[in-house]
Amino acid sequence: MPAKSKAQQRAAGAALSAKRGETKVGDLQGASKDIYDSMSEEELEDYAGTDHDGLPDKVEGDD
To answer: Global pTM?
Structure first.
């Protein structure tokens, strides 16, 4: 399932970076911290890999 907003795409990218050990888990904040635990690396790749051209900055209910 692709990301529905740019904010979701960025949060997934941050969480994916932490999952891969490229950044510290402790550096995650907000939504990226929440989805780090709840999504697999494959799911995060799908969200983070979404082309954000044409996506809204934020969707209601997006963190």
So the answer is: 0.85
Q: Where are the domains of the chain?
A: 6-48
- Phi then psi for 28, rounded to 5 degrees? -70, 145
3-state secondary structure 34-49: HHHHHCCHHHHHHHHC
Q: Are 31 and 7 in contact (CB under 8 A)?
A: yes
pLDDT tens, position by position, 4-60:
899 999 999 999 999 999 999 999 999 999 999 999 999 999 999 988 788 888 887
Alpha carbons 9 and 20: distance in angstroms, whole number: 16
CA gap 21, 26 in Å, rounded: 11
